[in-house]
Specification:
Layout lengths: L15 H7 L4 H6 L3 H15 L6 E5 L5 H8 L3 E6 L2 H7 L5 E5 L12 E6 L9 H14 E12 L3 H9 L8 H10 L1 E2 L12 E2 L5 H8 L3 E7 L10 H6 L1 H14 L11 E7 L3
Parallel strand pairs: 1-2, 1-4, 2-3, 4-5
Antiparallel strand pairs: 5-9, 6-7, 8-9
Helix pairs in contact: 7-8
Amino acid sequence: METDRSAGAEGPALAEEIAEYYGRDGEDGRLRSGAGRLELWRTQDVLRRLLPPAPARVLDVGGGSGVHAQWLAADGYAVELVDPVPLHVERAARLPGVTARHGDARALEAPDASMDVVLLLGPLYHLPEREDRVRALTEARRVLRPGGLVVAATINRYVPLYDNLSTGLYFEAERRPQIEAAVGDGRMRPTGGPKSLFTTAYFHEPDEVPAEFSAAGLTPHGQYGVEGAAWLMGGVRDWLDDPSRRELVLRALRRTESVPSLLGVGGHLLTAGARPR
């Protein structure tokens, strides 16, 4: 029998270094400007094709400051956001149509079978232990109604290599060990100080994610590359600034988003699944 975690349940603690990283308040701006808009708009593009019609109930787990919750609410969805970073919750709570609360993906307070959709667009790649990722997905299944949709974002395994080759940081000898270690076992270990590239994270191989869904009792039914190869192309910022070119970029990426051989090329991958009826 599944447990109903009522309000007030105390979830696991967020790792200190992750809390510090997101406490800098850089994530909201990253997705709303520059090349980060490609991740935002492509995630939006995929979700708008997968989600049931509004006003379905959406639980945005690890939803940050509400970048996705904002447009979901504007589209008419009933959106509840959960995030472990107090600053994020404070900002998201100001958004029209969004209810925001503090919480952890591994111990949700929502009642059993209370949601039509659960989004995990950030939590899985900050849980380096598979047991914790499966626990988060199991919680998503618990709060979903039978037949409900779950969509999870993961970061692809070779992102540290591609990204830092693109920026040139890979050529700095003191940074290469952190990059190569992450590519080797998928674990980003922060080194502390200004030379650290990211906070604690796990980078998936694409085929790992459906297996984690299945271990949590979810039925995976699709994977969608978010940025494809476009994020590594030098002109992407300019293309996104031009509405006509932006639409062509999105259309091109849509054509190849689920080609198996290309799933690991982009920065992020969306995996969709359902709670069995």
